[in-house]
Specification:
The protein is of the alpha+beta class. 26% of the residues lie in helices and 22% in strands. It has one domain: 4-Layer Sandwich (Chorismate synthase, AroC fold). The strands form six sheets. A five-stranded antiparallel β-sheet has the order 1-2-3-7-4, with helices on one face. It starts with a strand and ends with a helix.
Length: 357
């Protein structure tokens, strides 16, 4: 499998660099006849794009163009090509990093693997690439239909965590921090503003949930739904940890508490009394709500001198300049939602191909 592609039947391939002329992607495997247009994709891109007091000051409209695979507002079954022009590139901001590795970034590892790297904002390693994933997520949601609802929210900013996390996430799309709690958001905003003024950054945790998934999606052993979800979510830049369901907290439970007991419901169907498994057992969906959490590290580019080395092996210090998010987890929320949609759409098509439903 190409390292620029993910998915099996629903397959996404992206291209482009952070400060190149454009980024884009090809989405293959989408059935024909589904509603799709640039206007349908744009709101999701707007939710992820930079700009504003709590994000990178890079000003990108992120207007997408569909080049193929759509005719008269419907998918044709052919590959769907999407391109987004890069209009606010500033490669000169990275002149000082051309021969010096930025701590916390992929500069060193890319150089070791390929013998060179794109120092202009990280090139392919930049989170700029994720805009195409968000577009693909909209296509995936069309495959899933309205019966499957995916929501994502920021539930922790630095050390400030929501406890408990409210069940009502209706305000998340209107929140600049994608926060489901209005009171917490005020405190988060003050904390983030102070951190930014101090020239530093924060990490965060994004929670995602999907409702309306029928039992049976996924496959045993090497085709597990949770394994594909983990891989997709960990592929997002700055992601450093993932847990599904109760995740690491299950290590503190005993067997009686951790197992999700079952009973027969009034509708004659089995029902679960808890959901520590996060809606997946044996790699296959249970029909319950799918839940996961993704931890993101703080932005590595901070306005403080950091010790590093040069390409010729000299120890030095570097102070990175440019436009950077004070917390990348915020703008990762739409990306997490999109990646879950892509994985679920892929598994829906795989389930239909194997089981005929």
């Amino acid at each position: 499998m190409s390292h620029n592609s993910f998915g099996h039947l629903f397959r996404v391939t992206t291209f482009g660099e952070s400060h190149g002329p454009a980024i884009g992607g090809v989405i293959d495997g989408c059935p024909s006849g589904l509603e799709l247009s640039e206007d349908l994709i744009q709101p999701a891109l707007d939710a992820r794009k930079p700009g504003g007091p709590l994000a990178s000051q890079r000003q990108e409209a992120d207007r997408c163009r569909i080049l193929s695979g759509v005719y008269q507002g419907r998918t044709t079954g052919a590959p769907i090509a999407i391109v987004i022009e890069n209009t606010d590139v500033r490669p000169k901001d990275y002149q000082t990093t051309e021969t010096v590795y930025r701590p916390g970034h992929a500069d060193y590892t890319y150089h070791q693997k390929y013998g060179h790297y794109d120092h202009r904002g990280g090139g392919r390693a930049s989170a700029r690439e994720t805009a195409i994933r968000v577009g693909a997520g909209v296509v995936a949601q069309q495959i899933l239909g309205t019966s499957v609802r995916i929501e994502a929210a920021l539930v922790q900013l630095g050390t400030h965590a929501l406890s408990p996390v409210p069940d009502d996430w209706s305000r998340v799309p209107l929140s600049p921090l994608f926060c489901p709690d209005a009171t917490a958001e005020d405190a988060w905003r003050d904390h983030l503003t102070a951190t930014r003024k101090a020239g530093s950054s924060l990490g965060g945790i994004v929670a995602v949930r999907a409702r309306g998934i029928p039992a049976g999606w996924g496959a045993p052993v090497y085709g597990k739904l949770d394994a594909d979800l983990a891989g997709a979510l960990m592929s997002i830049p700055a992601a450093k940890g993932i847990e599904i369901g109760s995740g690491f907290a299950t290590a503190q439970l005993d067997g009686q508490s951790a197992s999700d007991e079952m009973t027969m419901g009034d509708d004659g169907q089995p029902q679960f009394l808890s959901n520590h498994a996060g809606g997946i057992l044996g790699g296959i969906s249970t029909g319950q709500e799918l839940t996961a959490r993704v931890a993101f590290k703080p932005t590595s580019s901070v306005a403080h001198a950091r010790q590093t080395v040069t390409h010729d092996g000299q120890t030095t210090t570097i102070q990175v300049v440019g436009r950077h998010d004070p917390c990348v987890a915020i703008r990762a929320v739409p990306v997490v939602k999109a990646m879950v949609a892509c994985v679920l759409a892929d598994h829906k098509l795989r389930h239909r191909g194997q089981c005929g439903v």
